[in-house]
Amino acid sequence: MTKRFLTVSAAAMAGIAATVAALPVTAAPAGDAAAGKKVFMRCAACHTVSASGPQKMGPTMAGVVNRKAGAVKDARYSPALAKSALVWNEKNLDAWLQRPSKVVPGTSMAFAGIADETQRRDLIAYLKTLK
Fold first, then answer.
1. Measured between alpha carbons, how far is 98 from 92 in angstroms, rounded to an integer?
2. Per-domain residue ranges for the chain?
3. Given this model, what pLDDT does residue 29 score?
């Protein structure tokens, strides 16, 4: 009886594995830009969203997605960030927004980060709308 159970269990497991393997692989859900605009309120004290707006403590976020870190003229950057080879793609933005000092040790950005993955995804969706 034990052998039969093992045989059935192995067959059942093989069927489950085949079913799981056939499921479509999907990317992480896209963020909600409207919700991200609300998350951005945490950033607005130091960052503007206008390319032509007044310079704040940090660089403008207009056009930030896929921009090289430290590339905004006349913005103040820490030497660590200015020398980094970062490009603000979605992966790097997500890591930065989670914990800036882990991505670029020595950064002058005084922001602990956003622990909530959904809020980070929403914020990145909002940043993508800024041209």
1. 10
2. 30-129
3. 77
